[in-house]
Write a structure and sequence with these properties.
Layout (H helix, E strand, L loop, with lengths): L4 H16 L3 H9 L14 E4 L3 H12 L4 E4 L28 H22 L22 H13 L6
Parallel strand pairs: 1-2
Length: 164
């Protein structure tokens, strides 16, 4: 049994707002009519990672390996098919020329690919299947667009090899 993030925020903010204005009975009524999230007493994590798709799971694992106490939360549970990174075939893209933070996101994606490859190298000796396969990418345009120009500039800054 879970709780929808939007419902949780509605209930939490409505209850807090009513409590602030002094209507504690109404605040208690609002919170009693909704489901509440699972809370484990006495366990306070250093970090909570919201979203248990590929990036959330890798982030939580990396933080845990650094010594942090991590709680991983997802609306539908870890590794679910509703996540953007769920399923068996997902691509990692570095082409964010249309975003003001595209260089940062592209760098993160390139680092994620490096980490996937390191994971495979570390675990193939234990007979685990490879998880990362380099497939390449093709972007077809009749001419260079501002998106492509910025993407190529980001790739050059990141030192990524591109073949045209």
């Amino acid at each position: 049994m879970g709780i929808d993030r939007r419902d949780f925020l509605k209930v939490a903010t409505a209850g807090a707002g009513l409590a602030i204005v002094g209507n504690e009975a109404a605040a208690a009524e609002v919170t009693e009519t909704k489901r509440v999230p699972l809370v484990r007493g006495g366990q306070v994590p250093d970090i909570v990672v919201v979203g248990a798709g590929n990036f959330g799971c890798w982030t939580a694992l990396h933080l845990q390996r650094m010594g942090a106490s991590v709680t991983l939360v997802d609306q539908y549970g870890p590794g679910n098919s509703r996540s953007a990174s769920g399923g068996e075939t997902r691509g990692v893209r570095t082409s964010y020329g249309d975003r003001p933070h595209g260089l940062q996101w592209g760098g993160w994606a390139a680092r994620a690919m490096k980490k996937w490859k390191e994971w495979d190298e570390e675990h193939t000796a234990a007979m685990l299947p490879r998880l990362f396969y380099t497939t390449g990418d093709i972007i077809m345009r009749s001419e260079m667009t501002p998106f492509m120009e910025q993407t190529v500039e980001n790739w050059n800054i990141l030192g990524m090899i591109m073949r045209f």
